[in-house]
Amino acid sequence: MTTGASLTKQQLLARVHRYIARCNYQTVVNASWLNDLMKHGLVPTGVRVENRGKHPQYTYYARAYRRALQIVRLRERGIVGQDAIRIILFLNGYSLPAWDVREALVREWPKHVKSVLAHVRSGYLNNQRPIPASHRSSLIKKLGPLDDRLEAGGFALPSDQMIEGLRLSLQEPVRLESIDIFDMARHMGIDNQSFQQLSGSITPVLSGLLMSDPAADALDGQLDFLESVIINSTDAQLDIARELARWSQKDITNPLRALGILSDESSADLIDLAVHSSVQRSAAWACVMIIIALMFARYFPDGFRMKDLKELRNRALSGEIDLSQAGPLGKGILGVFAQLKI
């Protein structure tokens, strides 16, 4: 890249150091860091060129440099685990082997499950016994505060729904056949619904998210039914899930407008920013987005692309096309739009 073509490893690392200094980052990286990333497939390895004497020589291209910079940016946000890096890189559109992403999800998600459960321990979450008022209040506080931007936009869940969601995530295993996107869409199509009313229709998606199997070995990542959703997903389903998750985290207010529940347009940018920044700064958020998207990927057998959905939505809203004439887009997309009565 000194000539626009390639770099030695020393030159690549020097470029990374200059980028860190220019951005005033606190991140410290060295040759061992770069070697480790290459060893584990997170940064492309060099291409061997002519030896210098008996010593093998390698050259590195722009793709390796760009990937190293992206990982530096993640490191600056506090994302340093290799599985967490893999998941967020995948979500952001970087090319990674599908098997590598599946294994990263299986290893990474249980870490966040343990963290959540450590904060919300309660003898009432694993059963349906009535929760005393004082304990209920304490339990809600343990969940922590909602992002101010989401709260300002009216996206705070009632405490009853929050507890119901927790119980479902711990007690009910994932059953893909019970998730009916079209039934949800029919409920969502009702005019003048608030987010609180709408959220009840999608609470079942939380089923099994926090379930774990204590008898599972480390290789299984201590996941229960959720592991089968991840491991048994096809490469195509994983790709569709990525596009669904990317669309949701970058442009969440568009479907909210379609549902008629974004009452305050002035909060739209804040909501989009809140969701996007949360996903980009938290591997837990990224895992959840991809895993839930995997549950819905089967509804899009013809594939899902954000640009296709946006184009379809814009043309449908303008009256330019009838949804039944939308062409080769996934049948799932058409069905959802039809049910939403856009």
Describe this structure in words.
The protein is mainly α. The chain has helices at residues 9-22, 31-39, 62-76, 82-91, 98-119, 133-142, 148-152, 159-171, 181-188, 195-202, 225-231, 235-250, 253-258, 268-281, 283-296, 306-317, 331-340; strands spanning 47-52, 55-59. A two-stranded antiparallel sheet has the order 1-2. Residues 217-221 and 323-342 have low confidence and may be disordered.
What secondary-structure arrangement, pairings included, does this model have?
Blueprint: H1 9-22, H2 31-39, E1 47-52, E2 55-59, H3 62-76, H4 82-91, H5 98-119, H6 133-142, H7 148-152, H8 159-171, H9 181-188, H10 195-202, H11 225-231, H12 235-250, H13 253-258, H14 268-281, H15 283-296, H16 306-317, H17 331-340
Antiparallel strand pairs: 1-2
Helix pairs in contact: 1-3, 4-5, 4-15, 5-15, 9-17, 12-15, 14-15
Question: Concise description?
Answer:
The protein is mainly alpha-helical and 342 residues long.
Task: Report the structural category.
Answer: mainly alpha
What oligomeric state best describes the polypeptide chains here?
single chain
Radius of gyration: 23 Å
Helical residue percent band: 55-70%
**Describe the biggest sheet?**
2 strands, antiparallel
Q: How would you spell out the order of helices and strands? A: HHEEHHHHHHHHHHHHHHH
Low-confidence spans: 217-221, 323-342
Strand order of the biggest β-sheet:
1-2
Number of strands: 2
* Mean pLDDT figure: 76
What is the straight-line distance between the termini? 49 Å
Shape: elongated
Approximate strand percentage = under 5%
Number of helices: 17
